[in-house]
Amino acid sequence: MKKYLAYVLTVMTLVILGLAFNTAAEEGITDTEIHIGQWGPQTGPAAPWGAVARGTDAYFKMINEDGGIHGRKLVLHYFDDGYNPAKTMAGVKQLQEEIGMFAWVGGVGTAPGLAVKDYIMDKKIPWIGPSAGSRHWIDPPSKYLFNTYPLYLGDAQLLCKYAVETLGLKRIAIAFQNDDYGKQGLEGARKQLAKSGLKLVTEIPVNVADVDMKPHIMKFRKAKADAVLLFVGPGHVARLQGTGKAMQFTPQWMTASTCGDHPLMMAITKGLYAGTISSTFGMMDPKQVGIGNKEVSQTPSLPLLAKYKKDAYGKFAAKEERWGMTFSTGMGLVEPFVEAAKRCGRELTREKLVAELEKIQNFNGIMGTVNYAPFDPKDPRCRIGQQEVFLLRAEADGSSTILTDWYQTEFIPMEH
Amino acid sequence: MVDFLQMVLSGIAVGSSYALMGLGMVLIYKASKVPNFVQGEMALLPVFISFMLLSTYKIPYYIAFPATLIFAFFLGCFLEFAILRRAKAPNILGLIIITIGMEMMLLGFVSWKFGASQRAMPFPISSYDSIMIGDIFISSLDMLTLVVALVIMLGLFLFFRFSKMGVAMKATQMNENAAALMGIKTKQIRMVTWGISAMVGAVAGLLIAPVLVEPYMMWDPMLKGFAGAVVGGMTSLPGAVFGAYIVGITEHLFGGYISIEFKSVVAFVIIVIVLCIKPSGLFARHYVKKV
Amino acid sequence: MLLQENVLMDMKRDYYEDVQIFTSGTIVFWLGALMLLLTLFPFIAKNYYIYVANYMAINVIVVVGLNLLVGYTGQISMGHAGFFAIGAYGTIALMTHAHFPFLLALPCAGIVAALLGFLLGLPALRLDGPYLAIATLGFGITATQIIGKIKLFGERQGLHAPKLTIGPWHIQTDKDFYFILIPITIFMVLIARNIVKTKVGRAFIAIRDADIAASTMGVNLTFYKTLAFAVSAFYAAVGGGLYAFVLRFIEPELFSMFMSIMFLTMVVVGGLGSIMGSVTGACLLAFLDLQLRNILEIPYFGEWIKALSESYFSLTGVSNIQLIIFGLILIIIMLFEPLGIFGIWIRFKKYWMTWPF
User: C41-293 adopts what CATH topology?
Assistant: First the structure.
């Protein structure tokens, strides 16, 4: 009995010791490497957005091939959280404590991001470019959180402005997803239309789980809408447009930046997407292409984007990966980070990175102009990053026509 | 009035695809006494295979679709033979967990093999064309789904009534030991039931696919089909179809008149109310348990 | 011989021996060792593992409660994410708006959930099997939808958990929270064990085995069936309230049907009708849930899977192997032992005890 007990106690001690790999947290920087973390849904219903993390990965590999940042290679640790905040938190904590990340970039989703935001901010770790245009990142602003994704409010503002002023439509309706993204669309549309003395003729919420869009289209038809704003995901856009066509309801469809990937939308709507106007924040430059001219996203006219496609996507993406908006968003969102890291020089610390980021003015990568300012807890604009969007129209041959120039949108603070 | 009729018609249209899922679930419930959570994924894999055949290998429709159905049949048989049968002394919860496990495996497998992006399925009938009856629309795809659901229900009815295998299946479901004593190979019968149910599911999947193809597309129809089958009675095939129509129509009427957000919720509330009145569903016989 | 009798033939010599919480000295010893391990754990393990332990503990609470309903009373519930949500939202709402202290808000939210559980139990009196599953599923969906509409609960934007202070003690890190969470978990598990061993537990088991016979013996079916729902709802709500503080941010989409199904899976895999089984089932599956994402990091296996993905499957979807492995584990456990992990343990124990026969 005593021998048995001793044996068991030894095993228990070994198990306890095995858990005790208590290395001190590193700063994520060595002489040769910079460790960056990112999360994204690689599985689950939101899996198409996993391309963002893979885009960042390909981008970093391209930079490493060119010599890295002052001799240091960027190592991206991205993990799958399945859009589940509990798993996001698990992954962030594990990476931060076992390897130690220098900074976090990207990160798809408002809910997963909000779950880990306090943890990352408390540890004073920079987080650049969350991949969700939510006001929560900047309202109230945090010193270490630099937003790059244009807020969805701006998309709604520009779309409504264009519909009313350029197209002369008066009856505007909206289909919005029942979350932060959809609600921002609703608020932005209301505020913009109020300026012209108009109101939304009908506002239809869409549950993400719903696949049957007939009741929604019936309501739109009844309200006789001329233009319908679609602040929903690409799958729902396809369903709404398909059901609309079947019910012979074809208004001017307008979508937000999440559906700016026109080749994908044309494919999944089997061509119905032609004529839809969507707001977007990158992948082409109105100044480069010219307003009223067309661009095909597979052959980017923007030189920097073409370089990314050749060097990052061409060499490092998986063979079944699509070249599209989500993939290049992964690259565009972290460009300010890379730029600021380069400006820091060889002496790279978190505080220096934050200082360099704050100095970024009129930075143009493959997306719009990015501006930061020194930290002011009362002014969200110091961390808002990009505030411009422009409009595209999808054409039947797969190209996109640029409709407007970059438009600086107005920031509307959240109601508290 | 037109609105009301339109809503009812749309409800019937969407109810047909729920009905096909419900039929599959009732078939399996009668055979294996388990609510089958892998019904959706048994349909998903054949649909993706069919997508692959049609887009990558450019095989014509009239070969691809029957091939898909045959694949679905063998998939159903395989799942029963390899996995469900191996469960020893199963109780209903254990079997449910096994079906959930199979569901996760198939879903993971499809997502792994095909990637997560959404795709469009080539299909001879477009979901964008519609037929007009007066002022009321029904899309051609929905019409096809309705016709197919009724045809399959009729076909299953005739199969169970008049064919030897169908009668054997009914006998196995009623009393397995007696059927075995009469010389019916009950294990094979169960396997074939799963195969047929998978085929029905694959038909449902193929009719849902033209709208959008993505790995998680079968969850909602499966749930609604399950709910419909429960309302109609898990042991009754016409009950499953009727229940599915009730779910579809209620959803649409509520969504049209009151609130779109809560339409699924109301469907479930109605189901609970119906079940309170008739605990085994509308059409099933409520067996009193022996003490 | 006496040891064998106790284990295999469950011979109890009097009523008081039967209602003992701990059946023998060895069990008390091992539980004591476990308590010691649990106390030392946060001092030697990294913060991340404490987070995992917190997550596992929360699942243990919910699953033990769910087992009272599913394992002991024989009713099936696929809507417990709804009670979990009520607990989470209720605790935060009571703390921020009614300024309740945490240790009071938690049981109050639990009682609210218990009342709703009681209401859900009423239609459940007439239903069983898949019918009850759909009814409870409907409840789960309804609860989250309704919560998503209430402005007090932040609607769809979600809610942040307030700062937690118990007495003079500020709870900030996972380690601090661990020292509240584990005692609460142990307490709830002990209560569940107590319930199971006494009159109420017997009534539950009687209802599961032969409810008509039970009612002829004087067991009030209505009372006990609804009580089972209420108690399991209480447990789920307590788990939910604690979850809100582990995650620090909740929103309605979290409490989905997948979560309910996961709870049910944990109960069945652990072992129906066994408290220790629920604890192990919950711990195992919660651990897998959080850790399977690391499967691609395993030295040779990860590389092999990636190479396989490149040739036959898609590299972009390679993370889905988590789902495949999880499903495979479920199937293997349930095929080998329908009684779940506890059943495996019993078989192991019997083999050990009766060797070499």
Answer: ABC transporter involved in vitamin B12 uptake, BtuC (1.10.3470)
